[in-house]
What does this fold into?
Amino acid sequence: MRGMLAVASRELVERRNAFVAAAVAAVLPLLAPILSGTHGGNATELRAVAALTVAVALAAALAMAYGAATISGELEERRLGFFFARPLSGLAIWGGKFLAGVVMVWVAPAIVLLPTWLASPSSEQWNSIGDAWLLLVIAPAAVFLLALAQAAGVAIRARSPWLVVDVVMLVVVTLLVRSMALRLLDEGATEAWTWTLAGLVIAVPLAVIVAGAVQVVQGRTDLYRGHRVLSLTLWSSLLAVSLVGQSFSWWVVHPTIADLRGVESVHPAPQGSWFALAGPARGRGGYVPGFLLDVDHGRSVKLQGSFRWELPVTFSADGRHAAWLVRSEARGSGVRFDLMTIDLRDERPRPRSTLIGFTASIRTLTLSPDGRRLAAVENGTLSVSDAYSGDLLAAVRLPADRVSTNRMWFAGDGTLRFPQFEPSAADRKVGAVVITEFDVASGRLRDTGRIAPAGEYEALFLRLDPRSNRILRRVQRPREGGPTLHDATTGALLADLVAPEEGWRGFPAFLADGGIAVAETREGRARLRVFTSEGAPLWSIDLGAGYRAFPAGERAPGRLLVVVRESEDQLTSGSRSVLVDLDTRNVEPLPSRLIPAGWMPLAHWWWDGEAAPGSVATRTFITADRGLVALDPVTGASRVVVAGGPPAQE
It folds into this structure.
């Protein structure tokens, strides 16, 4: 330590002109207001900004100049042998010179800042958090720049073939860091990238500093040998750091279902046993990966992290095909998304990229029953494409004065039907539902029916039954009427399902036998009313206390799940589920706080068709801690599919 301090003292005495230059530079910020003609409070702030600018520039200049001249310059001029001729170790020599450099790049900027601070201590610049962080960043950055300049000076002055190794390894390490950054950022693992970046900020300067020390200790007075040792130490360290980062980033973006600590979003197929779900992964910060999961057989397919949950995975009506969007690898102007498809009938399903792409304005995706055709609404244009070949089969511009309802279905491969909301001229929030048919072969649109008035668009709720060509309409505000049944082609009113008593708010759903169930609430009580397929009332049953009630599919034909919300808030933790036998009218409560996964909000607003009896949407449940469990429809035994956990758990 004594030897290192002696070397540092000698260096500082020899480089004392740096402090003289800093003292001269300290006058410049004080003269800045005079030279610019600024007065008053603005002059105070100008002095502070000028002082910070000069201090940063001086720190950078000293770090580069001293780092490039020391060690390498003395080796080239054969002056470093003076120190080795003394009873000093190589580490003491390097440490003394490096310590002297650190003192210069810290003290000289402080000399620049001190007079300005004494002249205007009340300046906002000295009290702002941003400038405080700037100073905290500049101090270690100047040290890193000093070490980097020292290493670069040795590499350049040695003029050895190892310089080629330096260039090659710089490219290799840069590419490795870039790939790990893109891997994490493309998957949305921003917190994990922050951890990785913090590790690199620590590891890279440390590797450069250690390599500089090893160069002096091992290379001694031989510049060529010193360069070789420097390169071997530096690049082996940085390569190891890069490979560790690669391993970490790969681990982050390759979780399994077992790594999830609950689910945030679920979207079940209308038939079969496949789910699309997303949830936070343990130990990976805020990373939320998505999966396709076969609940019955345990198969899963990880979705690329860049896929769009705002436009979730869409399933074909039979649950055997799925499609979704992922952010395109192209990084040009604007965001684009590529369509991915998968055949879930395969023993080992694999996502397949198509030739179909969309912009960020894509709003609706619908698969045909066999999964071969895809309908989409983008920028007001309806298109139908072959999901396998990517060929555009037909496209048409939709009326500009209408709004999509995200309800669309194929009536066979050649016809597409969908309702659209048409605002009234007097009030854009209210209007009618226009039912439109699109013929794929001819590319022609025609309006086939109309539901008017439809109520407010933001409160409009539609459920479809393509099998019987019917639509259930509900407006969430009681003053605009209760649920009604309409023909899905003409929009003609088939039945009014409104409760005979005032004040009841109901959510309707189609039953497997063609009937209709309406879950209703009023003044803290819930009930279920059942209708025939023509809309004639059959019977009603009390469901106990509740502020909202929702039909959630049939576990088996005639056994209807109903979710009853016990409080006014929107949280599933305040809800309970019951199983209603439609034949015996028996109401069976389900285990505490189990909510059918098909009722989750994402599945509630996005429509792939009504959940078939016994489908995964009716036998898989969300727990209070956001876990996912499957219930055996016969024995009632539960099986954990995704373990739950509190939101902040790691």
